[in-house]
Structures are given as structure tokens and as C-alpha cells.
Amino acid sequence: MTHTMTATSANRLSAKLPSSLSRLADIALNYWWCWTPDMISLFQTISPDEWERCGHNPVALLETVSYERLTQLTCDPQYTGRLEVLADQFDRYTTSDSTWSSRVAPQITSEHPIAYFCAEFGIHESLPIYSGGLGILAGDHLKSASDLGVPLIGVGLLYRQGYFHQRLNRSGWQEDYYTDNPFERMPLELQTDEAGRPLTFELHVRHRSVTIQIWKAQVGRVNLYLLDTDREDNDPIDRWLTGHLYGGNQETRIAQEIVLGVGGVRALQTLGLEPSVYHLNEGHAAFCLLEVCRLDIEKTGKSFYDVEKAVRDRCVFTTHTPVPAGHDVFSADLMDSFFANYWDQLGLSREQFLALGARRLGDPWEPFGMTVLALRLCRSANGVSELHGKVSRKMWTVMYPDKSEDAVPIGYITNGVHAATWAAPLMQDLYSQYLGDDWATQAVDPATWANVDHIPDEELWKRHQILKQRLIAHTRYKIRQARQQRGEDGSTIEATERLLDPTSLTIGFARRFSPYKRGDLLLRDAERALKIFSNQERPVQIIFSGKAHPRDEEGKRIIQRVIEWCRNHGSVNDRVAFIEDYDMHTARKLVQGVDVWLNNPRRPLEASGTSGQKVCFNGGLNCSVLDGWWCEGYQEDANGKALNGWAIGEDANTSDQALQDRIDSESLYRLLEEDIVPLYYDRDADGIPHGWIRMMKGSLKTNCPAFNTHRMIADYVAQVYAPGTQTSLAVTLAKVPQQNSL
Ligand SMILES: *Cc1c(COP(=O)(O)O)cnc(C)c1O
């Protein structure tokens, strides 16, 4: 059934195309193209301008482009020839039975796949239903699962307006606004029944029945199902249940999490899918556990406590938050108003029900914790880096009174990134030449990356410089646009052309502007920062980007301080840039073009972080606090000399934030002044910085094999999805205990 529906949607689009281009339609409907550089280029060639205007959405592109242009392309044998080759590659990719997973873990089957639940998915900028690291990680998880052939489906929400857009007003204050996602013109397919009507199910939320429909996004071999309440037959308020990502108040939040968790399970049932494992990526989806219990009770007639073990055997959990306040909790009042009809169906009393979310059993008066529920009803739990695993065990000892901290059953699998998504095509091409055509599938093998030594320094540097120029062009374009929209004067707009210089040492800092990430740390000592930026012989420049959550006043103030700093230091205001409305497109440009990626969170608040890993795949260097993944990535030699990037600061083991901030910023300044800037400007007669390039190669060789999602997926298969599986991929970064019961 699913198969014919796919055909219908692609058919509709291909009917609009000349027959020799018809394959563009089904490929446009599968995000496989977004990590296949040749395919991106094929879409872009249709009309570079239209491609930009459509926000890199190939479905919208094909619907807008003139038929005349399409017929022109049919007369271009080179174009149709390239399409034929890629269509072939696509068919082989999507239909091959001989995958890594089918060899090492045949027990995971497509009849009973892994269901991966997450509140956000960052697949591509044309599907804006993500806010930051969690979503990007989820997107990369799906892509690597697809590449490796792991039978997996994603479950999430389709937000009519996604996450907010950011613009800065003239005083540097962030303004938030929303735009509609036109689902019908996106690479999505509404799931329908045999009669062509939308496939729906009913969910009780509060005191009303809500009708939910299901969309499918294809991510290679993986299907991502997205739930949508925006239907005319729903109450106007309920249509907004899937309106915004992380918007609204606690009441919106709990309602949304019910749609995601309970609704997600019901959606799979409606689609006739029977997962073998439910993977909750972060606590937002934890209500899914209740619904799995409810269905088991309904099916077997057993009691909650009798099905509990069988449910736990099928459910696994990944936590992402190293601070107690970051975990979703709901008051008993809210739980009452949303679940008063539900606990009966589980055969539980109110007290028994609320106890499921209380950290200590028998303490039903504290708020209902989503992480608590997940820890209680999942057979395995993991953090996302070694350090985060440790921090999580400590944070949750309270739930395990008879266990020592070390024995708390929360392990870790360190995050990674999807190499083909984040490595620039120009670099991928270099890797194909020097590491082998199959470098991406062999990315977990250190031997693959050892070949980096064969790349001539000049060649690596030339490509890196081109990528930096592209980043600068992108930055100028975005800033010019923003200045025009703010109505700034002509000379300011014109000055955009002189912003940044491709020969200067270029630092990037881009991520959500949460206060703990300390976006303005580098500017804290204004004079010292000024000296670094304004050095005539050895200039330094920095590009910022990132949004603060709409309710995060402190985050917005940090952005404003960055903007004000530039304004107050006119002499260097061509060396500091802020790109508004951070998204995956800007992220790609940044991680591909910078020399140095700066990351200075308050330790240990960055559970993993992944943006620095993307930089590694492009030869950029990390300068980061030893937090999250960088604790595992950073290497120095016996004399304490850095080999593959830099480590900022030292843990003063103090709760005095101002003191720790001073220590870290002092360390950052010294690193820049004494190590980073001198190394970058140490050139040979041809202007090539061989010492710097040695460091780039050191980073490629040590970081790339470890911090990619192929390694991460292999770890999830071997330790979480099918524990005990021997995989042929190097599985070195994971340690996840199994838990039978609390
Ligand atoms: C990778 C990425 C992130 C995560 O960045 P961190 O530094 O790991 O927090 C956030 N947003 C976007 C758009 C990204 O691509």
C-alpha cells in the first residue's frame, strides 16, 4: 500500500515533466539527494536563481520552473546522461539487499524495524522542523541508518510554522517571526488510504478528540513519519498543536508531547507498522511508553505490572541534557487535566500513575518527569558522550538508592555527524582521490584517514581557501540582505562588499545562543579582543550566527552585546560579522569554510556538541573547552603540545561562574595570541602554512574516524538495538549497560 502511494505522489510531479526528466520527480521526493553532491548540482543546474528562491527545495523548484527551461534540458545530452547515471545510483542505493546491517544484524528486520522518536528532525534546510543540535543529530542518525541499511523509521511532528525565524533590529535586539511551511510543495507525501483519503486516527487530548494525519518524508531507505493536526475538522486550538516547535507554555508542551508520544505509537499502528524497538531520542517522546503499555494491556488483557517487563524489553532511551532544569517535568495538575481518562485504561490509580514520573517511588507529589518515566520503562539508557554519561549517572543516582553512582545504569554513546552531509563536495572529491572512492562508507576506519598524509599541502590549502571564500561570499550576501531589510543607508549596504578578508585567520562561532554557551566570551575583555582583531600583519576575523530561544532574555542580551561590540569598535567592524537566522545552509557554509571553530561552553553543560565535528570533516580546527565530545577528541603529545586542535581553559572546580569565565577567557586569549595566530601566519615562500596544515591533517586523521554517525549507528546496533551483536565497524566509543528493572 505504502508503495503505490509513493508512486502516486511522484507520478503527480513527474506528469509535469518531460519524459526524459521524469526521474527527477521521485528523486526530489527522497532526501537522498541532499547528501549526494552530484544530485544537488543537477537540481541547481535547472535554474540556479530559482533554486535559491525555493530554499533548496527540489519539489518547489520543479513546480515553478518553466516548461521551456525543462525542454531545453532534454536537449542537453550531458544533462540527461548525468541524470541517468544518478537515477541508476539512486535505484541501487534504495533497493540493495546486501547492506552492512543485513550482514551483521539480520535479526533487525524491516517487518519489525526500530522506531526512532524525536521532537525535531534536521534533515535539510528545506524541511525546517528543527531548532538545533538535537534535531541535526536525529537527521544524521536517519541518514547513517539508511546508508548502513539499518531497518529504522523516524517518528516526529510536522510543524506548520516550525521554529521561529530571527531578525535583528537596529539596536541588535532579536525579533522573532514565523512563516508557514507549505507542506504540499515540500518533499513530503500525505499518507492516504486505498480510496485516496488522508489516513487519520483520533487522539483524545484534553477533552476533545483530535484528528491527526500523517506525512512521510523519505530519507534514503528510511521513512520519517510526521504527525499533523492542522486539519479543518479539528478545533482551531487543536490545529495549532503541531504549529510551533518548542513554542507556547507548559500546557502546549504537554499536549504536543502527547501527540508525539501517544500519537506516534498510534500512527504506527494506523500504518500497520510493528516496531521491535522504540528509541526515545530525548524525554519529549516518553509518553510513547505509556501507549505501548496500553496497547499491550488491550491486546493481552494483562495488568500494567504484568506487561511492564515486556514493554521495557522493547524500549530504549537517549538523554541529552546535563542539567536537572533541562528535563521536562509537568505538574500534577497538568497531568490530571490531560491524563484523567488515561490511567484507568492502564488499570492504574492516579497515585500509581503519577508515581511513574516521580524520581523516588512512593513520592507521587513531585512533578512528573519525562526522563524519569523513560529511565523507569526503558531497558537501556545512554548519554551522548563519555563525560555526559558520567554526569547523567550522578544526576540520576537519586532514582537508584541501592546503587553506587558508578553502577547507575546509564551508559554513553558519543554523538557523531553524517560525513556526506557536512563535508564540502570539494573536500569529498579530494577524499575520493586520496582516501578511495568508498571513503564515506569506510569513514570509521582510521586506516582510511591515514591516507590524508598523501594529500599535498598545497592541494588541501587551495581547496580550504576556496571554501573560505565561499563562506565570505555567503556572509556578505546574508548581511547585505539584512541591512537592506532594516533600511540602512546606502554606504552601510555598500560597505558589506568590504566585509571580511579571505586571507585572514577566520574563526566561526555558531550555535544556539543559550547563556551557558557563552557566545560573547571572546569579547569579554574588549581591549584585548580589539588587539587580536586589529593586528595589521596578522589580522583575525570572526563570524557569529545563532538564535536565542524567544523566551531567553539573557541569550538575546548576549547577541546584542556582540552587535554592540562591533558598533563600538568601528575600526574592526569589517572583521566581526553576525549572520541572522542560523539554519543548516549557513551551518554548512560555516563549518566548511572556517579556519578555527570556537566552542566555549560552561563545562560540563555541553552534553556532546556536534558542530565542531562537522568542522573536522572539512579540515577546520577546533578550539574548544574540554567538554562533551571534545574531551574524547582532543589529543596532545607527551610534551603537552596540541596535535589536532586546542583545549581552552582548565576546570577550576568552582561554582563561581564569573571566576570560571575569567579563567576560560584568559586561556582563550593566550591560545590565540601565543599559539593559534602565530601558527596560522607561519608561511613558506609560497605562502603555505605547513605547520597549520600538519594540524589540519592531525585533526582529519584522529577525529573523522571516531565522530561520525556511521560509528555511532554501529554502536547503537551493537549495544542498544541488538545488544551483543558483533559489528565489523570499529566500535570503540560506547558503553551502555542493560537494565532489567529498577
Ligand atoms: C550542528 C548544528 C547545531 C549544533 O551545534 P552545537 O555547536 O553542537 O550546539 C545547531 N544548529 C545547526 C543549524 C547545526 O547545523
TrEMBL record:
- The organism's place on the tree of life at top rank: Bacteria
Q: Which keywords appear in this protein's UniProt record, sorted alphabetically? A: Allosteric enzyme, Pyridoxal phosphate
This chain belongs to which protein, by name? Alpha-glucan family phosphorylase
GO molecular-function term, one example from the UniProt record: glycogen phosphorylase activity
Give the family per the record: Belongs to the glycogen phosphorylase family.
Locate the N6-(pyridoxal phosphate)lysine modifications and list their residues: K614
Catalytic activity as recorded in UniProt: [(1->4)-alpha-D-glucosyl](n) + phosphate = [(1->4)-alpha-D-glucosyl](n-1) + alpha-D-glucose 1-phosphate
One GO-annotated biological process of the protein: carbohydrate metabolic process
Pfam families (UniProt xref): DUF3417, Phosphorylase
Q: Which residues form the DUF3417 domain?
A: 17-127
Q: Which NCBIfam families match?
A: more_P_ylases
Which organism is the protein's source? Answer: Myxacorys almedinensis A
